[in-house]
Amino acid sequence: MNLIIVCIDSLRRDHVGCYGNPWIRTPNFDKFGEKAFLFNGFNLNGIPTIPFRRALMLGREVFPYKDALAPARNVVSVLGWQPFTNEETTLQEILQDAGYVTGLITDAYHYFRPGMNHYRGFHSWEFIRGQEGDPYRTGVTDRIAEPYLYPPIQGTRMQNFLEQYLRNIEDRRFEEDYFAAKVFRAAEKWLERNACYYKNYFLLIDCFDPHEPWDPPREYVDLYDPNYSGKEIIFPQAGTTDTISPAELKHIRALYAGEVSFVDRWFGKFMEKFYHLGLEKDTAVLFLSDHGHPLGEHQIIRKIPKALYPELIDAPLMLYLPKAHGKKSIGAIIQECDIAPTLLELMGVKAAESMKGLDFSAVLNNEKMEMRKYAAGGYHTHAYTRNRKFHYFVNLREPKERYLFNLEKDRDMNQNIAETNPADLAVMEDLLKKSMDGWQLPEKMGGHSYTMPYIPFALKS
Predict the structure, then answer these.
(1) 324 pLDDT band (50/70/90 cuts)?
(2) Are 106 and 207 contacting, i.e. CB atoms less than 8 angstroms apart?
(3) Less Cβ crowding at N or C end of the chain, within 10 Å?
(4) CA 177 to each of CA 105, 289, 427: distance values in angstroms, whole numbers, following the listed order
C-alpha cells in the first residue's frame, strides 16, 4: 500500500463541514470525509508547528520537551522546537529504506530554516517560497503595509513580518499564484511523475494555509463578510482581543473562513487528479492538521501557550484506506505520535524501535475500542491533559494558574471548576505529573521573535 499525508496547517476541526460546521463551505473536505475514518478523539502532544511534526514523523511523544532548544537565530525558539538529531529515525527514512520513493511538497518554511533539517529522508522536496516571514525577498515593493498595519503591531517585529510577507507576494495576481494553489498543483505534478511509474511511494503535502496571514482571494472573503470597510487585519497581534472591535473581529473570522474554503477548493483539485490516476485502489490518504486557531473565543486571538482550549487543540484527523468504504466515526483518544506506527503496520513495514507511539490499527475495526485512557501535551510554558470527562491545563511557570473543565457539561470549556472540584483536579494533576515524568521547565527558555522590536531598513535619501 502507498501513502499520501496531507497536513493542513492551523485548520480548526469545528470549521470543517463533515465535523459539523454549518456555515463554512468545505465541500471537498466533506467529500473526502464521506469515505474516510473520522477521528473525534485526536489530541495533540506537541504544539505548535515543529513539535507537532516531530511527534508525527518520529512516532513518539515529544512532550515533555526534554530536548534542546532550536538553533540560534531561528524565527521561533519555543520549547520543543528543534531539528532531528542524527540518532533519530523518521517515518520517511523507514519508508525510504523499505523501497518507497519519498517526496515532500510544502510552503511551510520552518522545515528549511538554518539548522532545521526536517526535509531529511525525502528523495525529493519542493519548497514553495514566500509564506509569512520567509526571508524570500528583499527590496522595495509596490505593495504597501498601511492598509494592513494596525496599532498593536506597529513598532514590533510583527511589522517586519508583515512587510516581508508583502515583498514575498508582490507578483501575485491570480488565484493560481496563491500558496495553497501552488502547493496542490505541485503535488499533482509529483503524482504524475512518480505514482504512475513507481511501485511504492510516499508523498507528504504540507500546506501552510490557513495559517496567518489571512488573505485569501477576495471572492472567498466576500462569502462571509462582503460589506466590511475597515483595515484588513490579516496578521493580528497574538494575545487578547482587547484592541479589536466587534466589526474587525467578525472580519478576521471571515478572512480565516475564506482561507479554509480556498484551501478546500485546491485540495479538491488535487483529489480529482488522485482519482483520475486511479490511485484510490492502492493508496491510503491521511488528512490532518497540527492545531486549530483561536479567533476571539476566550478573548484570545491567534495561538499562544495559554490558549489550550478546543479552538486550538481540536484538530481534524481523517484516514482513507483503499479497502475500507464509507465514513466511520472513531472516538478513541489518539495522538499524532501514534500515527507513524499505525501507518507502518497497515503498510506491512516494520516500525523503528524508537517509535513508542501506539498502533491504533485495531480501532479501525472496532469503533468502541479504547487505546489511551488520556492524552497529554504542551505548548511552551503550558501543559494539558484530557480524558473522556475532564480537560485540565496549567501554566507551568505559575502553577496556581490552572484550569479544569467538565467536558460532559461544558464542551466549549467556559466554566473553570478547578477551585470547586478538588478531587477531580487532583486526579488530572496526577495524570499530568505522570506524563511529565519529573520534567520541569528549564531556567532558560526561548521566546518568539514577535515580541522583539521592529527593525526597519534604511533607504537612501
Answers:
(1) confident
(2) yes
(3) C
(4) 16, 23, 51
Q: Report the alpha-carbon distance of residue 397 to residue 445 in Å, rounded.
A: 11
What is the rounded (10 degree) CA torsion for 260, 262, 266, 269?
A: 100
- How is the beta sheet containing 375-379 ordered, strand by strand? 375-379, 382-386, 390-395, 402-406
pLDDT tens digits, 71-119: 666 667 789 998 898 899 999 999 999 999 999 999 999 999 888 889 9
pTM of the full structure: 0.96
Half-sphere exposure of residue 432: CA atoms within 13 angstroms, side-chain side: 25
Exposure of 102 in the CB half-sphere (CA atoms within 13 A): 16
pLDDT score, position 74: 67
What number is the average pLDDT over the span 128-139? 94
Angstrom CA distances, 139 to 175, 341, 454, 458, stand at: 24, 46, 17, 11
Side-chain-facing half-sphere of 396: CA atoms under 13 Å: 24
Topology of domain 2-364, per CATH? Answer: Alkaline Phosphatase, subunit A (3.40.720)
> What residues have CB less than 8 Å from 198, skipping those under 6 apart?
101
Q: Which of 63, 89, 88 is nearest to 78 (CA)?
A: 63
The C-alpha atoms of residue 398 and residue 360 are separated, in whole angstroms, by 36
Kindly list the domain boundaries of the chain, sorted by start residue. Answer: 2-364
> CA-CA distance, 165 to 130, in Å (whole number)?
7
The grid coordinates of residue 240 equal 487578547
Note the pLDDT of residue 145: 80
N- to C-terminal Cα distance for the chain?
62
Alpha carbons 215 and 305: distance in angstroms, whole number: 24
CB 103, CB 71: distance < 8 Å: no
Q: Using the predicted structure, report yes or no on whether residue 450 has a pLDDT greater than 70.
A: no
| DSSP letter for each residue of 396-454 | SSSTTSEEEEETTT-TT--S--TTT-HHHHHHHHHHHHHHHTT----SS---BGGGSBP
Q: Which residues pair with 355 in a beta bridge?
A: none
Helix (H/G/I), strand (E/B), else coil: 69: coil
Q: Which of 268-282, 317-331, 346-360 has the lowest mean pLDDT?
A: 317-331
What cell was used for 58?
A: 518520529
Q: Which three cell numbers, joined as nine digits, stand for 68?
A: 534542546
